[in-house]
Amino acid sequence: AVVSTQSTGNTTISENTDHILYCAASVPLESTVIISWTHNGQPVGERTQSSTNPTIGTLHLPNMSPSAAGLYACHATYLDIGTQTSEAAVVTVLGFISQPSDVVLDNRKHHHPELRDNDWF
User: Fold this and answer.
1) Sequence-separated (6 or more) residues with CB below 8 Å from residue 116
2) CA-to-CA distance for 118 and 2, rounded, in angstroms?
3) Distance of CA 60 to the CA centre of its chain
4) pLDDT for the residue numbered 111
5) Mean pLDDT throughout 44-57?
6) Which of the four pLDDT bands, split at 50, 70 and 90, describes residue 10?
7) Does residue 32 contact residue 49 with C-beta atoms inside 8 Å?
8) Please, how many CA atoms are within 13 Å of residue 65, restricted to the half-sphere of its CB?
9) pTM for the whole thing?
10) What is the pLDDT of residues 54-112, one digit of tens each?
């Protein structure tokens, strides 16, 4: 049986939006697959189990922030076969300054010579 996984390709999304990644895995006859996900190598989301062919796994990423950017990979684990990993999808999150507290202001004072009445022409 052919064992393969595919994930959504590289994508760029806006901050504070939702995003869904998809993974398709073929399932050998009379077998079961467990779909799991990693973000920058760390487990993320829920594991799902299925015996339908192909199996479509999803990873829902709500309210994306710049810290959620990175490499996402889908892993299909088959009993008696092992784990197949998809090529990682690069997710880029475009952030915006949403609150004034996010801005660092330069607190240095600028010296301006005082103007006197006779300085005006």
Assistant:
1) none
2) 90
3) 10
4) 47
5) 91
6) confident
7) yes
8) 3
9) 0.71
10) 898 999 999 999 999 999 999 999 887 889 888 888 999 997 655 544 545 555 544 44
pLDDT the model gives residue 27: 85
Cα separation, 87 vs 7, in Å, equals: 7
Tokens 């073929």 sit on residue: 26
β partners of residue 110: none
Q: Name the token pair of 80.
A: 């008696």
Q: What is the DSSP string of the chain?
A: ----EEE---EEEETT--EEEEEEE---TT--EEEEEEETTEEEEEEEEE-SSSEEEEEEE-S--GGG-EEEEEEEEETTTEEEEPPPEEEEEE----SGGGPPPP-PPPP-PPP-GGG--
Token pair of 26, please? Answer: 């073929």
pLDDT for res 107: 52
